[in-house]
Amino acid sequence: MQEVVRWFLLAVLSFMIVGGKLALAVDTSAMLKAMADPAGAPFFPVVMQVLQVLTWALHILFVYTSIGGLFFAIYGFTRRDENWQKLSRATIELSKVSVSLAIVLGVAPLLFYQVIYDPLWYSSANLSAWWYILFIVFLLIGYYFIWGAYLTKDKPTISMFMSILGIIFLLLVGFIIHVVNYQSLYPEKWVEWYTSGGTTMNTSGWNIYAFNIFRYLSFLVFPSVAVTGIFLMLYNWYFRSREDMDKEYLDWAGKVGARFALYAGGGWIVAQVLYIFTIPADWGAKGSIFTWLTLLGLLLVIGVVFAAQKNPAKMAIPSLISGVVALLLIAIFREYLRVASTARFGYSVYDYKMNLEFLSPLLFFGTLLTGLVLYAYAWWMAYRAGRTPKGKVYEASETEHHLGDASVFVVILWAIVFIGVGLIVIARNYA
To answer: ∠ CA 368-372-373 to the nearest 5 degrees?
Structure first.
């Protein structure tokens, strides 16, 4: 009898030990499906994926010029050359405007991501919750430092100091977003991270669990310099037609931009290759067509920028087009990695229960169309006015006046529809 009891206790103890270890072997597939929003997707997930790719590419473009503008400003302030001093003041203004646009345009891709990848985003964000909250604080601090650099741009030492602080906080913001996005690609590790391997519950939100330096360099640091370099080529091309602009300075700025774009583009493709090597083999992503397309896109940028070294103004538009193509391919690649990382567990956004709600998508696309018409007019007028010599007033053509009238009409129509729908919904809810 004692022998039976002894074997029973040993069996229970063994079960407890093994069971404690196996407790971490969570059914990731079931976990992901259980964490998905039970209400399902309000619209077709593939549409949201496309919109997420497009809006992220537009958002990240201005993130790059925000950070790249500060890189050029800091470097320029260390040089005594008057051209560099002048360029530093111009790139600080570029950074100031770009941060505002990046913040506004960053809302859309995040919303699309949250709707179709809610288990990934919220789980990762909760693992590093305090960092995720501080991301907003650091962004605001960095933004204020950039404004400080802009307001003191005629005092190089102070402006450079402000620029250094600004870029530190912007890179820290990029680090946090990188971590949250990267951790979300490893759902099989969430329970282990959250419980420290089954020993405790990590509820502080202060931990950083995953970071990939090559992904950070490839998706943020190198492209910031490369894209801003292409912008300087456009800066040269755009202002050359103005009689009041210094042509020698513009040609110099264009060549500086082309040179930095080439060097940073080389670093960009090296970092991308190294990141591809770190992708887990079971994702099946290393040999994917989407992976190869990112490398081809970056090679295209390097090839065009290399050809632009002698005449940056002439090659500014081709460089812009090649850069846009590369950014879109990178955006598609990022989306593909999400699909590949979750496909291992039989999880797919296309399996979401459809709960079609047409009113919200109609309002969204209506707002998008309104915005396109309005901003097409605003950007076109800014483009034409910017090419007018200082001291002269640009006179809009009859066609441009009609476009302005159409923009005002579309905005008024949108306001009527938007407010009207809200009133209808309120009336129906209280009927």
So the answer is: 120
Q: Locate 243 and state its tokens.
A: 């009689």
CA distances from 397 to 63, 343, 372, 382, 384 (A): 34, 54, 20, 14, 11
pLDDT value of position 418: 83
3-state secondary structure of 255: helix
User: Is residue 325 predicted with pLDDT exceeding 60?
Assistant: yes
Amino acid in the structure at residue 121: W
**Which residues lie below 8 Å from residue 134, measured CB to CB, with a gap of 6+?**
176
- Contact at 8 Å (CB) between 48 and 365? no
Residue whose structure tokens are 């309104």: 370
Region of residue 79 (left: phi > 0; alpha: psi -120 to 50; beta: else): beta
pLDDT tens readout for residues 14-50: 333 334 444 444 688 888 888 888 888 888 999 999 9
pLDDT given at position 369: 86
DSSP code of residue 187 = G
Q: Please report the pLDDT score of residue 2 as a whole number.
A: 42
The rounded distance, in Å, linking the Cα atoms of 52 and 46 is 10
Distance CA 296, CA 333 (A): 12
**Residue 323 confidence (pLDDT) above 90:** yes
Q: What share of the chain is helix, strand, coil (3-state, %, to 5)?
A: 80, 0, 20
Tell me how far apart the alpha carbons of residues 75 and 70 are, in angstroms, rounded to a whole number: 8
Residue 2's CB is within 10 A of a number of other CB atoms, namely 6
Estimate to the nearest angstrom the gap between the alpha carbon of 397 and the chain centroid.
Answer: 37
Say what the pLDDT of residue 26 is. 62
- Can you list the alpha helix ranges (DSSP code H) found in 106-246? 107-116, 118-127, 129-151, 156-183, 190-195, 213-216, 222-239
In whole angstroms, give the CA distance from residue 227 to residue 235: 12
**pLDDT for residue 220:** 97
